[in-house]
Amino acid sequence: MKERGRASYSHVLKYTGLFGGVQGLIILIGLVRNKAMALLLGASGMGFSALMTSMQTFASQCTNLGISFGAVPRLSGYYEQDNQYRLEYYVMVIRLWSVMAAMLGLMFCLVASSFVNYWSFTWGNHTLHYAMLGFSVAMMAFTGGETAILKATRHLGSLARIQIYTAIVSVVFSLPLYFIWGQSGVVPSILLIALATMVATMMYSYRFYPFRLSFRRSLFSEGAGMIRLGLAFVVAGAVGSASEMIIRSFLNVEGELVDVGLYNVGYMITITYAGMVFSSMESDYFPRLSAVSSDIPATNETANKQMEVSLLLLSPLLVGMLMFLPLLVPLLFSSEFQPVVGMAQVSVLAMFFKVLTMPVAYITLARGRSMAFLFLETSYYIVLVVAIVLGYRSWGIYGTGVAIVIAHIAEYVLTTGYAYWKYDYRCTRQIRQYAICQGLLACMAYVVSLVCDGWGYWTMEIILVIVSFTYSVCVLRKKTRLWEALMRKVQKRKSSSISKKL
User: Fold this and answer.
1) Is 212 helix (H, G, I), strand (E, B) or coil?
2) DSSP-assigned states of every residue in 294-307
3) I need a labelling partner for 491 at 20 to 30 A (CA). Which of 136, 347, 361, 466 fits?
4) Among residues 142, 190, 141, 143, which one has the least CA distance to residue 169?
């Protein structure tokens, strides 16, 4: 039993590290693009890009019908059963509904462009920009369907390569457009990146499942269950995207476009970059959780092990990020973004609550409680919007960082409390111990950032990073067999080298 437990910890660590590593590489590539954007467009250009991207994401979330999420369980079942006929038939269902989602996304942007322009800008007419985003939303719908096919049929290596290729192409396409046209190159860049992603995904998907499209009535009815399953995910995503649009529009109207750029950079550094540790949740953790969703002890064990590993992996990264932010912000962007350092540092603390919340939040989805999931997600975004409005009016950009922390605390309390009451979820004593130790180290690092400077700052911060890293490594070494496997591999290479010499 002990070996089984150790093996499961190793599995979680392996796939969390794998997907997190891919996301880390993508982020490094993206840093080049962001640095160039900061230098070529400035804070106002970054703000304009954030508004356009928010609209693109919002439109996609509203119209993609949840295909990239809802299609996976059933298609995955056919794949596991080796039912080739049903698998290929359901691939046709996915592609038909992807076409419908693409048409819906295009029409949505064309119809809503005028209203969104009036709501989000106090200067200029950007209706055409918003309308053009409809083509990128349509391409994202096609991409979502093909991604679901690759994910369900276990072609995760192909998905990783697609992500890396797309990240590289985004740099190659974007920089010349920003250099030549400046802010006017933002929307063409978004369109080209969406096109490159779609083409790369289809090239891999069509290699395994050649393209076939049919408009038979049976295909429409076959996809109804898929749409119902993904609906809550879609609505929750749309609420989240709408909230981000509201926040950025509020900052633009209440303050100025520079504030939107500053907020977007701070949010990107802390929430998006730290989120690379969470990238394995949907691809690996959610299927495992769904398989044991009717078994309360197994559900608790699965969720808690995912939480432990994610917490131990993320904590040293967060403490290190908090330490290096004064250097990272001007290095990755420009000195114009220096005012966002305080906001980003306090936002780092929110990630400790996020890593404790996400594994529990997926229990609701695994149980098929779509309305409960929607309620919990909507509650979080309401708190976030209200907190940012109040925080910005009180303390400016720094106040938005405080608001992000408050919203994540509220999300943690609500999600964990609901799971405790509804699903009999129980957090282990070990998780509480890890969370308290690593959380205290992070709080100490934040206090040091407020009261120290010069050599005192760097000395104290480095000590805290070393302590956090050492603590995580010691715990993970005890819980997994990866260390023993690494030692065996090193020993094998030594033996092989000695044999060759002899």
Assistant:
1) coil
2) T-HHHHHHHHHHHH
3) 466
4) 190
